[in-house]
Design brief:
17% strand, alpha/beta, two-stranded parallel sheet, 5-stranded antiparallel sheet
């Protein structure tokens, strides 16, 4: 009996040691992962600092601040949409695009709302979806005096930011609410990544030399085929007459602020180390030599 009790105590002691060792190894692994992530974040800040310095001192970019540099800006963006680099243990991929090729989702107002409604209607999305979007951008809608509908969005998501739609993640929450409330799976067919950008709306003009097919569809009210025709001539527009719009398309596009030269870059930096990576997104004002709207994704 004594030997059996001694054996049981020994087994329990071994089990406790095994559990302790396992827990300790888990803590060490988690700690090492945390250190690695912190090291990667530190490395990303160094890469970002160096990149901003290069952008600010680049003679090529300085030339792009000239109002007559439309061709040069197009050539730069065409040659800079994928730039892979190797920095020691890290791989860095940098890409540039126009920061004005998508519509700010918070730009919905009384004048252009019918075009937003028409675009979503083509995908068989009811008007109440736009009402929910407007409810989520109360600052903009108070200024435009267009918001008069209340859904249960903020009852289900009481901590959701409600001054404007600030990010794709916030839109995803809004979209999930709509899908659950109305069970309209057609919303999943909308190419949101090709259509919208986010953040406070400050009357930024769309650069018609770079807007996407989806944006052409929305701002002209045209078919996708017609929008593709307009997109295929990107980089070649200098005035509205170059677009060859119909009277109706001209009337629609006049409801948005547009330009043919906007020296603002959308920059994406992806840093990869082994199986870990970090994405950095920001905008860059070529004229002011200033980066803004920085977003980190680990």
């Amino acid at each position: 009996m004594r030997s059996a009790i001694a054996l049981l105590i020994t087994m329990m002691f071994v089990m406790l040691i095994s559990v302790g060792i396992g827990y300790g190894l888990t803590q060490v692994k988690e700690a090492s992962q945390t250190v690695e992530e912190e090291d990667l974040l530190y490395e990303s800040s160094m890469v970002l600092g160096d990149l901003l310095t290069m952008l600010q001192s680049s003679s090529r970019l300085i030339q792009l601040s000239d109002e007559n540099a439309t061709d040069q800006l197009y050539q730069f963006l065409q040659s800079s949409n994928f730039l892979p680099l190797s920095l020691g243990n890290e791989k860095v991929i940098i890409s540039f695009s126009s920061a004005r090729k998508k519509i700010n989702i918070n730009s919905i107002n009384k004048t252009n709302e019918p075009l937003f409604l028409a675009y979503f209607n083509r995908y068989h999305i009811e008007n109440n979806y736009v009402d929910i979007l407007k409810e989520s951008m109360q600052d903009s809608q108070e200024n435009n005096n267009t918001h008069n509908v209340t859904s249960g969005l903020f009852e289900e998501n009481p901590t959701l930011f409600r001054e404007y739609i600030a990010s794709k993640k916030q839109l995803d929450i809004i979209n999930n609410y709509y899908l659950n409330e109305y069970d309209n799976r057609n919303l999943e067919k909308i190419p949101f990544d090709e259509l919208f950008r986010y953040g406070p709306y400050n009357e930024e003009a769309l650069d018609l030399n770079y807007v996407t097919v989806s944006v052409w569809e929305l701002i002209t009210g045209a078919t996708k085929e017609r929008a593709t025709q307009l997109f295929d001539q990107e980089g070649s527009y200098r005035s509205l007459s170059d677009l060859g719009l119909t009277p109706k398309e001209s009337e629609n596009i006049a409801k948005f602020k547009t330009t043919f030269f906007a020296p603002f870059l959308a920059v994406k930096v992806k840093i990869i180390r082994d199986v870990k990576s970090i994405n950095i997104y920001f905008k860059y004002d070529i004229k002011l030599k200033k980066g803004y709207d920085f977003v980190y994704e680990v």
